[in-house]
Amino acid sequence: MFEIDPNSQSNLDEVTTLHVHLDVAVDFGGKVLRGSAALDMQALKHTQEVILDSAHLVVKSASLVDAAGQTTALSFDMSTKHKIYGTALRMALPEPVAAGDKFRIAIEYETTSKGGAIQFLTPEQTLGKSYPYLFTQCEEIHARSMFPCQDSPSVKIAYSAEVQ
Fold first, then answer.
1. Stronger pLDDT, 124 or 2, i.e. the higher one
2. Residue of 90, 86, 88, 117 whose CA lies nearest to 105
3. What is the pTM of this model?
């Protein structure tokens, strides 16, 4: 089998992400983001599982969302850990999807201070010294510590976000 990206644990050969919508709240005191990621996906071949990259995330739930907005809870597993590439988030779909099928997965999660994508600065570290500051740096493999995703340059993802 051809390996698409040796730095990703996601099943890049079976599904691809078309769009992600992040809805997160910033907790400057706790230095974390809390919220959800809704991933619009398309099957590249017949499959019954979605595997995403994650690193230092606390996943609270995963759901399949239908066109009417109704959700079906998905069982998920985060036991496949790699010391560099993080933790594979494996989600079993309730029914197999065929090549070309589109679907949405919603994941409730929280970041941790161990992730590399999000950096918090105290007010004292900023120019105005009045407000805290947050910035992100998702290269090279750090997007997976900001939200569960297919963290590979082979996947080009459009996104939208609501940040509180």
1. 124
2. 90
3. 0.93
